């Protein structure tokens, strides 16, 4: 894996952030990033802070993949020197706690964040070098448990009174190539048969799936309250034998369940591709 150092005068804002995520980019050459935890709407009142020192503001919900994405984006931008952790920490995962512990303690040899209390604070997609760079580059502002925009304004007033220089260099690591998804070109019948999905409103188990053999004979009826339980039953009973068929049926069941919550009509679509 190739590591590239990016000096501040080489930093290209158009090519940053380098990782996908649920964030809003404000001014890439400002000095602060905000990791938004639970209970905060960063598309709402907080968006009025555009004129402050904020480079990026984004949600984080997991103590592993979410932390990895955040770290990669921050270390790729040498202008960011402060990370504000704001909001209520997420039960179970505790990403705010994971970020604090990562900054204070780093990771052990297996990649576990030392001292973190989340369910699985293990970082498998960033290196020791990246973690060390993150810890040197960033100062943490701990606002965990606080959710008001006023909690931020005082912090940024303080940051403006003590401006900081960009870090000596950003750090960018080659990532996995993003591939553009394409529609299915072919459709092969599942030897185990096909399914008809129906919504039976005003019933205790409103989702109903009819399972037919490819000879058109009805073989099984499965009813349930939600898409997940029906999918689990179909897999347990070995009624599916192809991954594309399972993916298609999962999409249809999710649509059917959503139609119940939205009180709208459900119509089953045919699978993508030409029948072989």
In short:
The protein has 276 residues and is α/β, with parallel strands linked by helices.
Q: Structural class, from secondary structure content?
A: alpha/beta
Number-wise, the strands total 12
Query: Mean pLDDT across all residues, rounded?
Result: 89
State the helix count.
Answer: 6
Rg over CA atoms, rounded to whole Å, is 24 Å
* Sheet with the most strands, sense and barrel status: 5 strands, mixed
Q: What strand line-up does the widest sheet have? A: 2-4-3-5-6
Instruction: Tell me the overall shape.
Output: elongated
Instruction: Indicate the low-confidence ranges by residue numbers.
Output: none
How far is the N terminus from the C terminus? Answer: 41 Å
Q: Please report which band the strand proportion falls in: under 5%, 5-15%, 15-25%, 25-35%, 35-45% or over 45%.
A: 15-25%
Share of residues in helices: 25-40%
What's the SSE pattern?
A: EEEEHEHHEHEEEEEHHE
